[in-house]
Amino acid sequence: MALEKFRKEDTLAMRKKLIGQSCRLFYSDDPVKIVRARGQYLFDENGMRYLDCISNVHHVGHCHPSITQAATAQMDLLNTNARFLHDNIVLYADRLAATLPEKLCVFYFVNSGSEANDLALRLAQQYTQHEDVIVLDHAYHGHLMSLIDISPYKFRKLAGQKEWVHVAPLPDTYRGIYKENHPNPAQAYADTVKDVIDEVHRKGRKISAFFAESLPSVGGQIILPQGYSTKVAEYVRSAGAVFVADEVQTGFGRVGSHFWAFQLQGEDFCPDIVTMGKPMGNGHPLACVATTVEIAGAFTANGVEYFNTFGGNPVSCAIGLAVLDVIEKEDLRGNAMRVGAHLKDLLSKLQTRHQIIGDVRGVGLFVGLELVTDTEKRTPATDAASRVVKRLKEEERICVSTDGPWENVVKFKPPMCFSMEDAELVVQSIDRILTDMKTNDLKLENEDI
Ligand code: PMP
What we know:
By secondary structure, the chain is an alpha/beta fold. It folds into two domains: 32-63 and 331-448, Aspartate Aminotransferase, domain 1 (Alpha-Beta Complex); 65-329, Type I PLP-dependent aspartate aminotransferase-like (Major domain) (Aspartate Aminotransferase, domain 2, 3-Layer(aba) Sandwich). It has helices spanning 8-18, 65-77, 87-99, 113-128, 145-149, 152-155, 185-202, 228-238, 293-301, 314-329, 332-351, 382-396, 420-439, 441-448; strands at residues 34-38, 41-44, 49-52, 106-110, 132-136, 165-168, 207-213, 242-246, 273-276, 287-291, 357-363, 366-374, 379-380, 398-399, 401-403, 409-412. Helix 4 packs across helix 9 (293-301), helix 7 (185-202) packs parallel to helix 8 and helix 12 (382-396) crosses helix 13. The longest helix has 20 residues, at 332-351. Bound molecules: 4'-deoxy-4'-aminopyridoxal-5'-phosphate (PMP). 4'-deoxy-4'-aminopyridoxal-5'-phosphate binds next to helix 4.
């Protein structure tokens, strides 16, 4: 079977003509055309193999045979909607419940992270009868209008901040207002949320929710200081609001040691609402909101039915169940822990030899490499980061990308089957490229400053 219908340049021309240009391509100067994939590898139209370090959606590996089998078997049998009684939706909800603290035991199935966050917003507002929302600086929670409004990463470039949205500082201990040398960054950053709440109250307004990713991704692969969420939850709840943990990027064992990244904060912390998406269906559009009986009860009590045409259909749930099975059977959390630790260790060793590496951080297979042009001032090396990304693709056929407000954090969120050898290859390649840049083009950038 021919995998390619058009030559690459023809596909590109058609895409330019037919697809909205705000849907950008990776490597827009010279996009890659991928025609098939397996595990952590992508193959282009010439059969060239690319190592995928960023597809956190294809969680258990691209085109995993168990997922394909579960999907096709259920498609062959039945696909309806969640208004018909069916086992898959309850089986799946039950399996998800087993991964979560007991109080998060009611589920709504949707089709994307954005839908999940939009519903979380509705649930929070309905339950609290308050309107306002606190979010972290640089956050991204989705592409629906309600979520653009609560995503500083987007609204700063668009219509601006709505009066019901309030922004708390990103608890980034590398370049935020409280750094790693602060005696208690968790408390200090949590107190900034308290300050925001007090300010909102002074204006006569009321908070419905505090929304945060359990590890802020777009914010630059940030690891929240230990104890931050517990303290924030205390402040938020005493204001009559709820804590929403966005696990769209970080859930399903990516951090290795725990199934959910919010669990890194310790057993005394439990959000009121958890949203999930990306890895859930291994590429199939499947997302979810988990919440408490009380919050779900308030949503039911408004008398308005919640119906989602595709959410929770038997095929989606069969896929979701298969993803959970593969995570367990292949010990992907164990793999994330071992390979992630090795990757971080190798990158930290690299840091001792390359001044441009300002910080290496991460848990499991959620890792960031922050590049700076000045170690003291921590000046973002945005241009260098984009050159590393480009050269990794062109010279090594390794796909990585950048995150963070200055796009200077090289991020790693590969499929969970990423191997030790993959980690070693990536680090060797970065080492070679940084060494080459040091002797050639980096000098230019330093002289410019
Ligand atoms: N929340 C976070 C943290 C995300 O990263 C994203 C997508 N990048 C979303 C929500 C929105 O998910 P989707 O694109 O599936 O609507």
